[in-house]
Amino acid sequence: MNSSIMKTIRMLARRYPYKHAKRDAFRVLITTVLSQRTRDANTNKAAEQLFSMYQTPKQLSEAPLKRIEKLIRPSGFYRQKAKRIKKISKIICEKYNGRVPNDIEELVRLPGVGRKTAGCVVVFAFDKPAIPVDTHVHRISNRLGIVKTKTAGHTEQELMRLVPKRYWKSINTALVRHGQQVCKPRSPLCATCLLKKICSYASRQFRHR
Questions:
Q1: How many angstroms separate the CA atoms of 194 and 101, rounded?
Q2: What is the pTM of this model?
């Protein structure tokens, strides 16, 4: 493995350590579905409203669709998401005896569940190694020069190939937090970044000053 990439991964893992906190798998799954194409604040509000009324797959599978739509409206695309959430809940009840599967290949068979959502469930609910690639992870791993990819799917494949498995669980947390605090989409704080000496993006920024 490229030594600079390994150094970047280690520094990020130390700066933003992954600590598993036991979370309800169904809540992680539905919250991640709600997070699609919206901001964190909107996701949190929608999830809080939804789970204040319905906590289990059975309850949500039996809930009126219009009621679900109203509760999750802050998340955007609420009609489409409500249908998916109801279908997901019904499948979990009927096929998995009310338990969320802990396998990515099983999870992606659920409607509206892609590899990012499945990866989040596997990591944050079951503490199993996976690399959920959202917009933060895709953007920042390319900006740092860890990968050179065009799509989130390709980024996941490259990260799984390049990064030792012991770091997989920490990748999403580290890159998301780094993106929120330092490596922002616009005006990243390169001057104060711990990775500025080994980051390809930062080196270009300073070279042009």
A1: 38
A2: 0.90
